[in-house]
Specification:
mainly alpha; 55% helix; globular
């Protein structure tokens, strides 16, 4: 088993969040972006693997795994935000973010930001959420 890399910058100031994300990474362990999903993508070694699954709406198992991962990370974020009284990202209140919309947006964002394809799926997904759904000042 290879050692875990250093935590992403957005977690270094939040030790409780870092501990929870590290625990999730142990449970949800990880092929270049921009191609059809294949069996190796289901190991979720990288954000690129997750993006490949999310970019495959015609493949029910791929899109369902992608959406399940997104929902799971969001559910953990909700619990962490409640426990820490601090959100990492803020979903819009005036509209609904659908699973299909989130999957497509994440896949497109990874394609536009190829350096993200090599980070862990959780780091990539949370980085996308931070970029796509910043919290208003004071939240």
């Amino acid at each position: 088993m290879k050692p875990f890399p250093a935590p992403p910058v957005f977690l270094t100031a939040r030790p409780a969040a870092a501990a929870c994300v590290a625990a999730i990474a142990l449970v949800m362990m990880q092929a270049p972006p921009g191609r059809a999903a294949d069996e190796s993508d289901y190991m979720l070694a990288t954000a690129g693997d997750l993006a490949d699954l999310c970019a495959s709406p015609e493949d029910p198992s791929a899109i369902h795994m992608c959406q399940g991962f997104i929902v799971a990370v969001d559910q953990v974020h909700i619990q962490l935000a409640a426990a820490m009284d601090e959100k990492l990202y803020c979903l819009p209140t005036e509209s609904v973010v659908t699973r299909n919309g989130a999957a497509a947006a994440f896949a497109a964002w990874v394609a536009e930001n190829p350096r993200i394809a090599t980070v862990s799926p959780i780091d990539g997904l949370v980085s996308w959420a931070l970029d796509a759904f910043p919290c208003p000042a004071g939240q």
